[in-house]
C-alpha cells in the first residue's frame, strides 16, 4: 500500500539475497572500491554467488576493476517493465560468476555524471530493482565516499546485514571514518567492521616495513567505536597493476595484499 512498483520489486528481489553488505569510507582514495572487488572476488573464489552494485555515481570504477566495463547490457521485458541482465566476471572460470552492475556501464566514460537528487535516487533504485540479480549469497554495495544521500537512499530501501568501513591509518582519514561508522550505527546496521588499507609498505629493495600513513590507526578506531577490526592490507604495487588490468589482486598473484584480503574475507564469512 502506497509503495511504488519499483520499491515493491526491490523488496521482492531483496528476499533472494542472503547477505547484503555495504562497503563505505569516510573519504575518497582510501581503497574502498579495491576492498569491495577483492571481497567479492574472494567470496566467489570460495564458491559463493556474489553480486556487486557500484552505487558510486560520481566516480564509478567497479566495472573496470572487474574487467566488464565494455560489456553490453541486455534488457528483458518482465511483465510491464524492462529488467537489465547484469554482465558477469568469472576470470576464465576461476570463480563463481560475479554479477556486476555499475553506473559506469550506463554512462559513457567521457561524460561526467552530473545527475542530482531525484535522478540519482531513481538510478540507484533501478540498479536494485530493475536488474535480474537472481539468487545471491552476497550482495556487495560499493557506496560513494562520505555520508551522503545515496547511502541514505539504499539504507532506507533495503535491510543491510553488514557495513565494512575502509580507512587508511592516517589521522584525517580516521576522523571521517568515525563519521561513517557512526552513520551505520544510527542506521542500526547489525554488523559493522573496519578494514585498514594501505597500512604499510614493504620496501622492494631492503625488505623493511614502512608505515607510510602511521601505525595502528584503524584498529584503534575500531576499538574506540566498539566495532570489529577485520585486518590490515599493505600497499602493494601488484594490486595497482592488477586493478588497472581489471583483475582483483586475490585472483592475480599471491602477494601480501592478496593474502590479507583472503584472510579478511575468511574472518568475515
Ligand atoms: P576509493 O574507492 O576509496 O576511492 P580505490 O579503491 O579506487 O579507492 O583506490 C584508489 C587507488 O589506490 C587505485 O588506483 C587503487 O588501485 C589503489 N590502491 C588501493 N588499495 C591499494 C593497495 N593496498 N595497494 C596499492 N594500491 C592500492
TrEMBL record:
Subunit and partners: Homodimer.
UniProt GO MF annotations: 4 iron, 4 sulfur cluster binding; ATP binding; ATP hydrolysis activity; ATP-dependent FeS chaperone activity; metal ion binding
UniProt xrefs under InterPro entries: Mrp-like_CS, Mrp/NBP35_ATP-bd, NUBPL-like, P-loop_NTPase, YlxH/NBP35
HAMAP family tied to this protein: Mrp_NBP35 (MF_02040)
Statement: the UniProt record of this protein carries the keyword Ubl conjugation: no
Domain of life: Archaea
This protein's record includes keyword NAD: no
GO BP, sorted A to Z: iron-sulfur cluster assembly
UniProt keyword annotations, A-Z: ATP-binding, Hydrolase, Iron, Iron-sulfur, Metal-binding, Nucleotide-binding
Family according to the record: Belongs to the Mrp/NBP35 ATP-binding proteins family.
PROSITE patterns noted in UniProt: MRP
Endpoints of the signal sequence: none
Matching Pfam families: ParA
Binding site for ATP: 26-33
Name under which the protein is recorded: Iron-sulfur cluster carrier protein
Species assigned in the record: Thermococcus paralvinellae
Purpose: Binds and transfers iron-sulfur (Fe-S) clusters to target apoproteins. Can hydrolyze ATP.
